[in-house]
Amino acid sequence: MSEFLRPFHLAFPVKDLEEAKSWYCDILGCSIGRESRDWVDINFYGHQIVAHLSEEIGSTHSNEVDGHNVPVRHFGIILSQGKWKKLKNDLTSKEVDFIIKPNTRFKGSKGEQSTMFIEDPSGNTLEFKSFRNDSMVFEK
User: Fold this and answer.
1) How far apart (Å, rounded) are the C-alpha atoms in residues 26 and 60?
2) Would you call 29 helix, strand, or coil by DSSP?
3) 19-53 residue pLDDT tens
4) CATH number, domain 9-53
5) CATH number for the 62-136 domain, one of 2.10.25.10, 3.90.180.10, 3.10.180.10, 3.40.30.10?
6) Which pTM value belongs to this model?
7) Which residues pair with 128 in a beta bridge?
8) To bridge 112 with a disulfide, which of 34, 45, 46, 132 should be the other Cys (CB 3.0-4.6 Å)?
9) What is the separation, in whole angstroms, between the first and last Cα of the chain?
């Protein structure tokens, strides 16, 4: 792992820890790390996300991005094209509702990417994307 590409840490609110553990493991294939009665560590594609029990959940704000209303508050992962397609097929077969269905945005530009948005049981929005060319992730 390079000096600059290290696992990130993200903490986010959930209304029910058992429901969150089940969803992240059964739907996304994540695994559980340490946990307490108020939080649980989740291995999210090699990154540490932590679900914290909270009464304050969700946000409804969105911005228009390439013809879609993208929830402002969201997190996710950039996958290879093959892993993105596999996840899309897995989510479809599990009949997961998409907030934004799998699509390709910024077609023909150097930022072209496949993307899809889903919501966990607590209303947290997740985006999964794959760039046509990974070297364009931070390109202006």
Assistant:
1) 26
2) coil
3) 999 999 999 999 999 999 999 999 999 999 999 99
4) 3.10.180.10
5) 3.10.180.10
6) 0.88
7) 77, 116
8) 132
9) 25
